[in-house]
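Deliverable D5.2: sample structural annotation.
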Amino acid sequence: MEFDEWIGRTHEAEDALTAGLLARYRATIGCNQQSVTAPPGIHWCLCLPDTPIDELGVDGHPRKGGFLPPVPFPRRMWASSRVKFLHPLSVGDRVHRRSTIKSVTPKTGASGNMVFLEVEHVTRVNETVAVEEIQTLVYRDAATTAAVLPAESELAGRDGVERDTIVPTAPLLFRYSALTFNTHRIHYDSDYAQSEEGYPRPVVQGPLMASLLLHFASKRLNGARIRKFAFRGKSPAYCGQPLHLEFRPDEGQGMALEILGPDGNVVMTGSLVTADPGAG
């Protein structure tokens, strides 16, 4: 498979951060803050694809072959992101996002054939860069065996680690899909998730888990501003099963984050770097 002609392809979009969007985002992730400044992670709810219904694929995603290359594999996951929060977003901001395909890399692994797609997103407010992100998507072969729902077990505490537990419900998944205009059927269509992609239940969105991690960490940072954040999905998480969010300060201004599934296995890893409250 050769997709070199897609490397360097760009897409641009504009949007506005409204008070209504901010309120709905906060209500979704459980944030009680009332400031006009938005929490980190809201950029994933801006400059969204507005593909007409009749141009969606069977999985609910926009059909491939426009901005994204026509990778022939049916399953798609948001695998990871590296984000820099350079300027806060506030109610009333007009934002512009320029997306650029940086690489398309076929690979073969234990789970079969895959294609990794790296996309750079630059979000600006006027001429000021607010968010820079490198996002990695992975396309995979069709599932050959059905995934098994993880067993739930009680987790022991760990020294120096703060933990919170969240159960992602169907209303939570629905709200986040609505906020991000995401029609991928694995997040709300149980029959499709099971019969077509081999998941035992609807799958929790990767950026939703990342947003919950950001909010979880923000509550423990005593006003310090998050400047860098990275996450990597390790395995799927499923609707109705508990997720254990963990926070561990590292030396300096770094923090290590994890989400554990109901069986204690790692679902997502993350890290962040902060700046002092008065830093620019």
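Annotation notes: The chain has one domain: 4-275. The radius of gyration is 19 Å.
The annotation will be released with the project's public dataset once the embargo ends.
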